[in-house]
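Lesson 9: reading folded outputs for more than one chain in a single document. The general rule is that every protein is listed as its sequence immediately followed by its structure tokens, and records are never interleaved. Here is the first one.
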Amino acid sequence: MQSDVDEDRTRKIEVRPFPLPASMRPEDVDLRRLISRSIAVQIGDTTESVFTRFAKSQTEFMAVLDRERLVGICSRHRLSELLGGRYGFALWARKPIGMHLSPPRNPSLGHNPD
């Protein structure tokens, strides 16, 4: 009987990532719309400052610029996961947002990272 209880405790649980709705995937975001609304941060901005901007806005994504050149996007969801972990805020809050980009894959912008 005791071995059955121990076996139940040690049984591994398979954890699957929660799929994002199509409207929240970085590759489905219209980057021109982000830039035209001036929802952009600079590549050297801290992760904490970008997270604060997300908290004050209704947007799910922000364009990340290197001066005026688009280098990628960051998502509210990704930053929440990153900073919400056990040591996430302590590890990442002061690091530049450029470390956490989803590269733009929009051929209409003339940039293709592949």
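And here is the second record, again sequence then tokens.
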Amino acid sequence: MRPKNEQDVRQVTHASGRDHFDGQTLSEQAYWLMHRDILAGVLAPNEKLRLQGLQDRYGLGMSPIREALMLLSREGLVSNEGQRGFRVTPVSVEDLQDIVWARLNIETILLGQSIRHGDADWGAEISAAFYKLTHAPVPASLDDIENLEAWEAAHRRFHRALLAGAKSPWLHRVDSQLVDLTERYRRIRLARMGFTARTDSIFTEHKALMEAALARDVDTACELLREHLTATFDAQTWLGDGVAATDDVPAAAPAKRAPRNVATPRARRSAKVLERA
């Protein structure tokens, strides 16, 4: 399990290069510092993580660095190579497709639960998050660090608000890990292609999602979410070696459509319980 709440690890004092981690252990500090740098691409995919170099970079001891690396390896951001040490997990088209496919399936379940169980506070938070997102300045470039971080925080808040009404802590936990993994790919795309989001598309896509959720229209909201995530993480030539079209990412189909000769009766009953939860 990951350490305490991140307290928005993006709140970095860029001028000094120092972060504020009041109340956190040294291991938690090491975790969030490396977590931030892996997502941002400062620690590049497949980069060898030498313990001495990490100690020098973060000013922390060997034990907290090791503990943080073990936590990150459990979350898929770091590869544990045994006697050969650690390295940042590589990226690939196939890996991105698998992560997006898993996220599509989990988030459509969460969204369905959230719409069914969300109360007035849930709806109010979605509206507030949408307002914040559509009024956050769109970054002019990757050098516009302050606006880039603020926009991404607002974007993440909106998607988190959509799913907040769901009652499954385990699905939320797994989804949080998948969001981090996809975030790393999104940062790579930003670094290679620049910030390409248009203000009008940001408004229309997220407005449609908000309206469907608040109208309690599960089918429409889930379809819009599938389209939004698939388009956002379409693995194109920005990944380098591989090229994949959007159609290559499997859509998240409702479990009830599974062939009868594949799923057992117990599995089908379990899937229906998830859909109705």
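What the second record shows: Residues 26-88 form a domain with the Arc Repressor Mutant, subunit A fold (CATH 1.10.10.10).
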